Amino acid sequence: MKSITINGSQRESVGKVSTKALRNAGKVPCVLYGGDNPLHFSAEELSFSKLVYTPNAHTVVIALEDGSTHNAILQDIQFHPVSDKILHVDFYRSFEDKELTMSIPVTFKGTAPGIIAGGSLRLNKRKLRVRALPKNLPDFIEADVSELEIGSKLYVTELANENYTLLHADNTVVCQVRVSRAAMKAAQEAAKAEKEGEA
């Protein structure tokens, strides 16, 4: 999985006043959990663009001014309800020998016969929750739709992989091919015309 480096400065004071001063300076207050003690730091708001405003999943390397680096994943992010500015970010420390849980994007490949026949592909899950060791976290999960006929569903069990565990019920539908409205309307009109012809 690709990694993004975020350069940060450790925060000495974590009260409301210092937090407001940070935000006014274009910085985001952050916390790194998962160690002995939470680590408070701040980083430039711009440094989060590749991490937040993307459908892709990334691990993070937090590089602090004192030269220390910390491997982590994004845990939670808070946005301002009006301006949409990033208010606060929580990270969770990752260790090579400890499994992590992350949301991984699903990419769809292939052409479903059901779509060629006039159906439409409905994407029920664009991301799936995965648990794995950091080295086994995939960049994406590939879902092959080339076998789906109209009315067929692709279940999460068909995407199972020995490198990671999918944290969804076995009956979770990832995508399905449904009868499109146009095809349904055409079938109804054909049936109606046939009925009128019989009359």
TrEMBL record:
Gene Ontology terms: cellular component: ribosome
InterPro entries tied to this protein: Rbsml_bL25/Gln-tRNA_synth_N, Ribosomal_bL25/Gln-tRNA_synth, Ribosomal_bL25_b-dom, Ribosomal_bL25_C, Ribosomal_bL25_long, Ribosomal_L25_dom, Ribosomal_uL5_bac-type
Large ribosomal subunit protein bL25 L25 domain: residues covered: 6-91
Keyword Nucleus attributed: no
Source organism superkingdom: Bacteria
Ranges of residues in domain Large ribosomal subunit protein bL25 beta: 100-179
Keywords: Ribonucleoprotein, Ribosomal protein, RNA-binding, rRNA-binding
Family, per entry: Belongs to the bacterial ribosomal protein bL25 family. CTC subfamily.
Function: This is one of the proteins that binds to the 5S RNA in the ribosome where it forms part of the central protuberance.
Subunit structure: Part of the 50S ribosomal subunit; part of the 5S rRNA/L5/L18/L25 subcomplex. Contacts the 5S rRNA. Binds to the 5S rRNA independently of L5 and L18.
The name this protein goes by in its record: Large ribosomal subunit protein bL25
Native organism taxonomy: Bacteria, Pseudomonadati, Bacteroidota, Flavobacteriia, Flavobacteriales
